[in-house]
Amino acid sequence: MTPRTSGAVRRRRVPLRYLLPLLFLVALLAMLMLRGYTHSEILADHRVRPPAATDQVPHRVLGGGPVIDARKDSITTRQVPRKKLVLTFDDGPDPTWTPKVLDVLKEHDAQAVFFVAGTMASRHPDLVQRMVDEGHEIGLHTFNHPDLSYQSKSRIDWELSQNQLTLAGSAGIRTTLFRPPYSSFNDAFDNQSWPVTEYIGSRGYITVVNNNDSEDWKRPGVDAIIKKATPKGGKGAIVLMHDSGGDRSQTVAALDRFIPELQAKGYDFTHLTGALDVQSAHIEVTGLDLWKGKAFVYAVQASEHVTSVLVAGLAVIGVLVIGRFGLMLVLSVVHARRTRRRDFRWGPPVLEPVSVLVPAYNEAKCIENTVRSLVSSDHPIEVIVIDDGSTDGTARLVESLRLPGVRVVRQHNAGKPAALNRGVANARHDLIVMMDGDTVFEPSTVRELVQPFGDPRVGAVAGNAKVGNKDSLIGAWQHIEYVMGFNLDRRMYDLLRCMPTIPGAVGAFRRSALERVGGMSDDTLAEDTDITMALHRDGWRVVYAENARAWTEAPETVQQLWSQRYRWSYGTMQAMWKHKRAIIERGPSGRFGRVGLPLVSLFMVLAPLLAPLIDVFLLYGLIFGPTERTIIAWLGVLAIQAVCAAYAFRLDREKMRHLISLPLQQILYRQLMYVVLLQSWITAMTGGRLRWQKLRRTGVVGSAPGIPAQPHGGDRRPVG
């Protein structure tokens, strides 16, 4: 015991690798929220107020010019001089149409005013910079394009400030020009929109409407657009057009005719302040405001790239999920039909005795059930319990049972691989069965497990691990995972001859195969995966015996589950890295390296890492839309998983009632597995070393085959 320091509290520092997955998720959520914000999917208001009375609007505004200056108490309006044309473009910049519009303007030496929406400008800052560089003028068109007559003053300020922030980040400027969304002519001001214009004037902006509306958004044809845009009698005009919001090919074609035709009639196409011969509307931004704008635009660009990557990842996971389930279903059907034929035999019946190894470290809660289940085996066995330095009396408990054929081998605590190697050294028989100290075998398990050794090419056999404590929600989730995710996988890998893991709870080996690959290794935390890969590389077949059932105690708390899966994930990565040379080798090793390792990488690492994208986009779609299509797509994926799960349960003769929790498992359990896998990646990339994660056992899996027993009384102890 460490002495307690008086008046002092020892604080445990949380390792960075535990915080990084959470920080990554928070950053990902922030990127998605920013993307939704800049695509008008969040905080957008698409209501448009119908016309109202006009008795509160000054007559000089209703009958005045389209340039309205309400910055002072005396409101003034101005007209564009004769033979001056100010082309204005709303709602952009658009990555497709704005460059075409700019090209036409540049070709005909014309200038214009672009009233940009902040949502578009933040996503395409290069186009805003091009507008400024080519001598055009920029005006604000709000950030999210709402009808401002519905909005509060704080929302109006926010729309303006966010738009200015975007201009600062895109081109290093501010502007004094503003055009309200859904605006048209002076006589369209009413008692709802005019107070907004007055307020915007008080904030230092000049409001600009128009004289001529080309109505290009209706796509009426090039001739109609030109006719609507052309002023009469040589008058000057502000012309409304659009460079975004849909197909603007007619707008571009109309400009290419409209500009030279009116230039030939003596019209000058210039920006607004040039036409009015006043100070430029652009104000240079410097200092902190400039860097705030650049940071915002950079964040928006990052969110766009992140979303693109996520969409690509979603496509990949869609292919992987559907491909994996399709492959599992087809190959599982083939495997089941092959192994369940009446005339199917691995070879001559295996009747020789077997050595069963039970590594044990502080297994007092479970070990009695384990060894009692073994002595009821219908196959001749010897049982060797290797006590790996237990401190809870595990060895004494086994010896006190005085069960026939059961002996105890003691060693100082050296870890599970060393305990198994010690057991192999003490085993009397050539066939070795390995199991965990918390696992219960059925009477036929050993017999079913060793029958594949009738084929001399078989070096190891994976049994059918089952969850014994499946009555809790977490247990039910793991039960689904074991039946569907593990056992369907094993059928598939069996046919493909690249089984990645012999489960530590129930597996069998030839002694000669173990000796040829050097026995169990402590190089990784997944010694079962490591030894399986080594056997493949040595040319041995590794097969699956579905009827060799073993009942194991699954973790019962989230913390225990996290510890177990973290070790599994990290250990699998270690084993893959250890055997990476198999990819370039020849013979059996090369076959496993070019078939098995890619499949393990895809289905056990990449797919679980990307799988939560399905739920991320479900949440995103529910909030931002399209909701209906999002729900249908998610339910479609769930339906595919449900079909696979139902088929797996049918193959294993399991009750379907546990599948009720499948939807909740997919939402919650998948996120936990994702975070565990992400943490494993971070641990691997940062060079961290993960120590053995010891689980707390309760002894709930009883000795009666497949029937959970009630836990023994007394305190809970950490058992393996």
From TrEMBL:
<feature type="transmembrane region" description="Helical">
    <location>
        <begin position="599"/>
        <end position="625"/>
    </location>
</feature>
<keyword id="KW-0812">Transmembrane</keyword>
<dbReference type="InterPro" id="IPR029044">
    <property type="entry name" value="Nucleotide-diphossugar_trans"/>
</dbReference>
<dbReference type="Pfam" id="PF13641">
    <property type="entry name" value="Glyco_tranf_2_3"/>
</dbReference>
<feature type="domain" description="NodB homology">
    <location>
        <begin position="83"/>
        <end position="270"/>
    </location>
</feature>
<protein>
    <submittedName>
        <fullName>Glycosyltransferase</fullName>
    </submittedName>
</protein>
<dbReference type="InterPro" id="IPR011330">
    <property type="entry name" value="Glyco_hydro/deAcase_b/a-brl"/>
</dbReference>
<keyword id="KW-0808">Transferase</keyword>
<keyword id="KW-0472">Membrane</keyword>
<keyword id="KW-1133">Transmembrane helix</keyword>
<keyword id="KW-0328">Glycosyltransferase</keyword>
<dbReference type="InterPro" id="IPR002509">
    <property type="entry name" value="NODB_dom"/>
</dbReference>
<feature type="transmembrane region" description="Helical">
    <location>
        <begin position="309"/>
        <end position="334"/>
    </location>
</feature>
<comment type="similarity">
    <text>Belongs to the glycosyltransferase 2 family.</text>
</comment>
<dbReference type="Pfam" id="PF01522">
    <property type="entry name" value="Polysacc_deac_1"/>
</dbReference>
<feature type="transmembrane region" description="Helical">
    <location>
        <begin position="631"/>
        <end position="651"/>
    </location>
</feature>
